[in-house]
Structure of Nuclear transport factor 2 family protein:
Amino acid sequence: MAANTAPALSPTQVFERFRANVLAGKPGLTSELCADDVVVELPFARAGMPHRIAGREQVAAFTAAGREALPVTFDEFRTIALHQTTDPEVIVAQYEVTGTATATGHRATAPFVLVLRVRDGLVVHWCEYQDSTAIAQALAGDAH
């Protein structure tokens, strides 16, 4: 078997793959993007949701189940800011995702901030800040 000579993805390229996955209706963070020892942190996760998931298989299962359980069609993904850091492995992204809840037809936008570390083309650390209460309200069609 020939060795893989494709250059490793940069953090920005990984973020763009994540964006494309979201807009395609797939889990945003897939196992193909993750290192074996990846750690995902969700500091503001709502009650009943994990704040930390470790390991490629666990992350893949979590993101696949989350996407399957999320009755939303994503219409827009707007990158507000993408910051390079002094560490070439790390970027900070501020973005908004707009979607339509399939059950209610309600359209809403949710803001996110992501701190992403990519090593050798694979995600090793993903720390996402989101307003999970606002997301739940948007799914229900409630106003803030």
Remarks:
- The chain has a mean pLDDT of 90.
